[in-house]
Amino acid sequence: MKRGLFLTVASILLFSIIAMAQESRNEISVQGTGFFTKDSSGNGISRTTTNTGGLEVGYRYNINRWFSAEANYGFDRNTQRYFSSGGENRVQSDVHGVTADVAVKLPLHISKFSPYALAGGGGLIFHPTGNGGGFVPGADTQAKGAFLYGAGADYVLTNHFSLRAEYRGFVYKDPDFGLQSLKTDTWTHSAQPSAGIVYRF
Fold first, then answer.
1. Any idea where the domains of the chain sit in the sequence?
2. Higher pLDDT residue, 20 or 155?
3. What is the distance between the alpha carbons of residues 36 and 21, in angstroms, rounded to a whole number?
4. Digit-coded pLDDT (tens) for 81-105
5. What average pLDDT does the chain have?
6. Domain formed by 24-200, architecture
7. Closest listed residue to residue 196, CA positions, set 150, 164, 151, 152
């Protein structure tokens, strides 16, 4: 009887391990992005930003059928333009986005589509390029904490590949690159629509 119980338990464990191995919990994504930032003003300074495109790579772990945790890295390059009584200053910078979030799959039954919403946080790192016409002496690399929210949908192509369309919004304080002359001390918002491909394994 003990031997039979042992075989039963061993069989259940073996089948559980096989089922978990066959379940695709990991995802890697590569997406092309847009990066559009809202104008802002404060302390007698008005700031505008050029619109640009970039790239985002991410890793998502599916905890269960409803919840996932993910981490992403994004890269863009734009120019911040600051207007004040002293004239105009421009700072071209590489923007590195490092974020983590939780994604929740929405209970909508649409053939091959899997919609989701997400929320999290991270940082946007603004690194001046130093290129002529887009540099202010003394401008330094600056990181800004950001709140992240968004939504998207995957379209299943095969067991391992999907197409992804997504929108992410970042809320953070204007960068000033460590210079008082560029400090608006106001909050802004960047919209990041994207589309790309997902590999599940």
1. 24-200
2. 155
3. 41
4. 999 998 999 999 999 999 999 999 9
5. 91
6. Beta Barrel (2.40)
7. 164
